[in-house]
Specification:
537 residues; 5-stranded antiparallel beta sheet; 7 strands; 5% strand
Length: 537
């Protein structure tokens, strides 16, 4: 190529590059100088780079609607009206204006969703975190900082270091130190990496454990590898410890469910000698009571749940009294015949529910105060619904113990359970006590169904899932002994959760059943046998 032609080509390339740089600088300056309406208009376009600049501009101006804008963008509910580019937020089937929240009329065809790509989502999460870091609520700041672990850039690290200087909350400062230390583990300087490992050695977080493992295996400095390996051992011990606590918690929660299922049966089976195969269906009625009340009180699941407790007790209790007066009272002393009769009643109740509510499972809404988790640390989180089930079981058990120990009905029930003939001779109306006792056990089964509705779907077969476990709890704990029911239920729940990781869910149940059979061979009356002349004779 001639020298002049080569020079001419080089000049053209430099000129084009200069024009491109000037053009980019011009538009960058224009975007940085964007007003609020201009930034909102850019969001309705298709240029994602311009949208990133528009969001940064809005963050600097910090309008009051900014959190709503970020939330709508993140969930895909930010739209604009095609006719005038007005930004709106979709919620519950209607559209409301972003700026003032006023309802915007029009059908869905008149609006178009604001497009978002992966880069914009990443920027959105970073900007949202940056805004949250300025929140006056320390809990919000702590949540934002924890979400930045392993995701910050060098500029964000500098911002966090500045934040630590003015931060007053110790938990937030500790979280900042961990995020910065995690970032420093990527430093090229060995001294900085060593200091970062010493900060993270006691942090309880799976991501930190993973990072320490990488350093222990891949770092170029042998001293750092050894230091990281020591940190890994410490973190793994903490993880195993909290994993054991979590397993124990799930075992106690499962045991609480078993106690709820068995505590009513302990009264009807233990006190009255009735093998009630319809006990599971009485629990089912309590669960459906919760479902119906939530339909009657839409939008108030918490109120419906609280009202369901006395309502389910009354409904299942009345059904139990009806069963006792119409069928069971003719079959006392014949347990096998009560088994067949109540099995038939259970089929009738299942079919009645299928006819009224359909055979499909129904979902019950969990109240907001029961949803979510209680975070102890990043190795241990406890689900709130199971925590409430445990507390509810203990309260119900305490109330039942008080009723049996302190009330006249409880005195008569204990007298009949220990010696029915003697109690009748002492003036106790055994027929009335039988009806009330069966109603009490049935009502408690209904309350148990309310609790179970928060753990599983409500359906006609709900009771069948728990009836066998309920009998196992009652027999293992000691027929008619409430303390035995509590201990047996919790013991079986914890044992089941301990065996599941080793043997699997199905084999764990089989092993527990075999263990109970062997135990009953040695102690036929269970852990806490009932005492009394009729029992011992």
């Amino acid at each position: 190529m001639p020298k002049s032609a080569h020079l001419y080509s080089s000049l053209i390339k430099r000129g084009v590059m200069t024009l491109i740089l000037l053009y980019g600088a011009f538009w960058s300056a224009q975007l940085q100088a964007m007003t609020e309406p201009e930034a909102l208009a850019v969001l309705t376009g298709r240029d994602f780079s311009a949208k990133e600049e528009a969001l940064s501009s809005l963050v600097q101006q910090n309008p009051s609607y900014l959190p709503s804008l970020f939330a709508a963008l993140d969930s895909g509910d930010l739209f604009y009206r095609k006719s005038d580019k007005q930004l709106v937020i979709r919620s519950s089937g209607h559209f409301s204006a972003l700026l003032d929240g006023a309802v915007v009329a029009g059908d869905a065809s008149m609006f178009k969703r604001v497009g978002v790509n992966n880069a914009l989502r990443e920027q959105l999460s970073q900007l949202a975190a940056a805004i949250t870091l300025k929140n006056p609520d320390p809990a919000k700041r702590l949540e934002a900082i924890k979400g930045m672990l392993g995701k910050i850039s060098a500029s964000q690290a500098d911002s966090l270091r500045q934040l630590m200087v003015s931060e007053s909350d110790e938990r937030v400062k500790t979280a900042c130190a961990e995020v910065l230390a995690f970032f420093d583990t990527q430093s090229a300087e060995a001294s900085i990496r060593k200091q970062a490992i010493s900060v993270l050695a006691n942090a309880k977080n799976p991501l930190i454990l993973e990072r320490m493992t990488q350093l222990a295996e891949q770092d170029s400095d042998s001293a750092i590898r050894q230091q990281a390996a020591t940190a890994v051992k410490s973190l793994e011990r903490s993880q195993k410890f909290y994993s054991g606590i979590e397993t124990l918690y799930f075992g106690i929660s499962l045991g609480s469910v078993l106690v709820l299922a068995g505590i009513g049966l302990a009264i009807t089976f233990g006190v009255m000698g009735v093998i009630n195969m319809a006990h599971g269906e009485l629990m089912m009625l309590g669960a459906y009571t919760t479902f119906v009340l939530q339909k009657w009180l839409p939008g108030q699941p918490g109120v419906a749940l609280l009202l369901s407790i006395p309502a389910a007790f009354c409904i299942s209790g009345l059904v139990g009294i009806l069963i006792e007066r119409s069928v069971i009272r003719f079959l006392y002393g014949r347990p096998l015949e009560t088994l067949l009769a109540t099995f038939g009643i259970s089929l009738l109740l299942q079919q009645a529910v299928r006819t009224i509510f359909s055979p499909l499972n129904q979902s019950v809404i969990m109240p907001s105060w029961m949803s979510g988790t209680l975070v102890i640390n990043d190795f241990l989180s406890l689900t709130l619904n199971r925590l409430f089930i445990i507390l509810f079981t203990l309260l119900l058990f305490a109330a039942l113990i008080w009723l049996l120990k302190r009330s006249r009905l409880g005195l008569e029930v204990r007298a009949v359970s220990q010696n029915r003939a003697m109690a009748r001779n002492m003036g106790v109306r055994s027929a009335r006590v039988n009806a009330l006792t069966f109603g009490l056990g049935s009502g408690i089964a209904g309350v148990a169904g309310v609790a179970l509705s928060q753990l599983t779907n409500v359906g006609p077969n709900l009771g069948q899932s728990y009836i066998i476990d309920a009998f196992m709890v009652v027999v293992f704990g000691g027929v008619g002994n409430l303390w035995g029911t509590l201990v047996a239920g919790l013991t079986l729940g914890v044992a089941n959760k301990l065996l599941e990781p080793v043997a699997g869910a199905m084999l764990a149940k089989i092993l527990i059943l075999v263990a109970i059979i062997l135990f009953i061979q040695k102690r036929p009356r269970g852990l806490f046998p009932q005492r009394g002349r009729a029992v011992e004779g």
